[in-house]
# Entry
Amino acid sequence: MSNHSKQEGRGQWASHFGFLMAAVGSAVGLGNLWAFPYKLGKNGGFAFLLIYLVLVFVVGSVVMVTELSLGRMTKRGPIGAYSALDKRFTFNGAISVFASFIILSFYSVLGGWSLKYFLTYVLEMFGNGFHGLSGADFFNSFVADPVQAVLYHALFMAITGVIVLGGISGGIERCSKVMMPALFVMMLAVIVRSVTLPGAADGLAFIFKPDFTVFQGSGGLAVFAAALSQMFFSLSLGMGITICYGSYLPPSSNILRSAVIIPLCDTLVAVMAAVAIMPAVFAFGLDPKQGPSLLYVVLREVFAAMPGGAFFGALFYLLVFFAALTSSIALLEVTASYLVDERKIPRKKSVFWAVAGVFATGLPSALGFGVLGDVTLPTFSGEMLGILDWVDYVGEYALMTIGVLIMCIFVGYVLGPKRVIAEIERDGTVFRLKGVWSFMIRTVTPALVLLTFLTATGLLKL
Ligand code: PHE
# Structure
């Protein structure tokens, strides 16, 4: 096979709707369901939401347009894209592939937990009754058990692998087209249940009451930085995914429209998640500011107390599972496409090795709540983190932000904004805001990414 026909054979999205569902699926994930609601609550509710919205469209869309264009322009994943455009920057493609690889290694552990919770609620629904344990005890005994910790991580990676094996349109697109609309409907059902509980109004007030005092003093900058890092992670930027997904776009696709729709849907689901979770947490008098334990500890208490809790628990964790799965297939595709495109390894083998590699890398994270519970690792600021949190820290805060920063510099000053504008306009689209976009990608965006890097890694204390 010639190189050309090989490239043609990489696959393409079968429909624009399918591409959008896959891209929204990659964006909508645990970041929306678990991190966004508690960050919203902790950082001033509506005030945080407003800043977040501005950042999504002023910074997020700018980066997303760029990544989609780099992908469609080169028809390659991140490593291939940079090496086709300028070999000196191939390392930046490698950074994002590495970042997506290690992020998936711990993301899969968390995704496995959602599977465990879903199955537990299904059993409870069919008569087993609730385990008499408190939310914390249930969670702690589960994650400390090495057999279960490894089993669910393995199961989650296996399911991810099977979907990615099906290829772009046959696997990723086909599943996303079913899972994302289903997620939306399930979310609506959970919202109706949550907001009709007695006492729910306090939860809504907690989310939507603007508390502008959080912006006073240097705290304001901290809230701003928190919104920024949440935004990058939630939109799946800097991870090679958007470049990779963009590379399967036909030339006729409208990049600008996609770069508005995807962030819009992602933000909508994040707000919906807060509306689904917070009223219920308040209705049962639980603590909304518990942070990370919200999804797997606090909500377990909520469902135990709620009428119809087993059913809604099953529904909710199926939704969480779908959200995590559509993100993990995107993360796996980045590594798989590298092996297929650049190493010329057949897709089947590529997916197998990618799954095996991610599974092995994720083992310490999976065991980090039990047998490896005493292991902690340092951040730049000297804080000590458990294994899973530390891998998250390296992938999400350090590598992802560096990747986006270097991309801004590359596009703004080396490749030149004109190349990207030409790509966007290739399908006949008129890019009215090209002046604004060029300005942003050269100045404001890299400055804000740098701020995110410094604050999220702890190098700069606010
Ligand atoms: N955006 C996903 C979420 O919000 C996580 C993710 C990050 C997925 C990076 C892919 C790449 O959970």
